[in-house]
Specification:
Blueprint: E1 2-6, H1 9-26, E2 31-34, H2 41-52, E3 62-65, E4 67-69, H3 80-87, E5 99-100, H4 109-122, E6 128-131, E7 153-156, H5 159-169, E8 176-179, H6 182-186, E9 190-195, H7 201-209, E10 227-232
Parallel strand pairs: 1-10, 2-3, 2-6, 3-5, 6-9, 9-10
Antiparallel strand pairs: 4-8, 7-8
Helix pairs in contact: 1-2
The structure holds 2-phosphoglycolic acid (PGA).
Length: about 240
């Protein structure tokens, strides 16, 4: 695991964008796993800027969203699909058919999860998976206790996650979601984990330097052969 610490979240975002752009230049057909939330916003802004300046070409890139909330219309402004379209994808030269989302509106979400796994396999697996970390150590919506070999599935959200998500959803916070499993995530050939801010400092230290345990789902990344971590100073402040 390689850990890089940057002065602030803006620089972190720019460096993460450079990292992703360089992966796309090496492999123009990159299969890229995408995240939502606060964490990737600067990085996505920079990728959009790079794409506008023709510094990176997304025309053959394929993307897979890491997770989605259930019981929301996919057009909801804070569905993961809407967030990804609005903060990144609609500004890139990436064909619609190359964008993959977990379909929360499916009449059978469990089989939609299964189909997602198959689609990931069909395109040859994820080359680069972006990740953020939740305050409770979750990856995607793999909450504490999620098995390390879990696959894409429906999950219940914990109180910590629901409280956090109230910033977007107010009183109508989703109770369930769909998420790639920890096993699915660990099969990505390369991982880029990002975190910023003091609030993440404790969980970042536990995940990166504490015991590998399902109580801290992100701790499994210690076992990934090609995981890069990018932090700002605040998020890195509790690392030994
Ligand atoms: P955040 O969420 O990017 O909004 O901090 C991360 C997460 O909960 O996984």
């Amino acid at each position: 695991m390689k850990i890089f610490v940057y002065e602030n979240r803006e620089i972190l975002g720019k460096e993460a964008a450079k990292f992703i752009a360089s992966a796309i230049r090496k492999n123009p057909k990159l299969v890229l796993g995408l995240i939502t939330g606060e964490t990737p916003l600067e990085c996505y802004r920079e990728l959009v800027r790079m794409c506008e300046r023709d510094e990176v070409d997304f025309s053959q890139v394929k993307t897979f969203a890491l997770d989605e909330y259930l019981e929301l219309p996919s057009s909801h402004p804070y569905s993961c699909k809407s967030q990804l379209l609005e903060t990144l994808l609609r500004y890139l030269n990436i064909p619609h058919k190359n964008m993959h989302f977990l379909d929360a509106s499916s009449p059978n979400p469990a089989s939609a999860c299964q189909a997602y796994e198959e689609e990931i396999k069909r395109v040859g697996g994820i080359d680069l998976q972006l990740l953020g970390i939740g305050l409770n150590g979750h990856l995607g919506l793999n909450e504490p206790g999620s098995p390390f070999d879990s696959r894409t599935r429906i999950v219940e959200l914990t109180e910590t996650t629901k409280t956090y998500l109230a910033r977007y959803f107010g009183e109508r916070v989703p109770k369930k979601g769909m998420t790639m499993g920890l096993g699915t995530i660990m099969e990505a050939r390369e991982i880029l984990l990002m975190a910023h801010g003091q609030a993440k400092a404790d969980i970042v230290a536990k995940a990166l330097k504490g015991p590998v345990t399902t109580k801290v789902p992100a701790s499994i990344l210690q076992r990934h052969p090609a995981c890069t971590v990018m932090l700002d100073k605040a998020a890195a402040s509790r690392l030994p």
